[in-house]
Amino acid sequence: MGYDPDQLVGRPIGELVESDNKENLLKDLATRHVGPLAITDLEVKLKLSDEVSQVVEMSTQTILVDSVGLWNVLDEDVFKNNVDKKFLETLCVGKRAV
Length: 98
What we know:
alpha+beta
């Protein structure tokens, strides 16, 4: 995508997402769901760096994102009411769409 890692560290993902429905897309990416409720193969268009977009004559790249909530308990315990649990963060993994 043409970015140097230093350009991405600490940068909100919302600055890279290109979508007419960005707010809902970001909510989906920030899921707390696990197991079969986790997000799989969500199509996301990300902005390419200015240097890349000038060379390849396109401004975005579509990727597929899997997104899952990470908790301090096992996935199956997330669904239980009688378990003391804490949401830690969301893990998103992107792969190139074909």
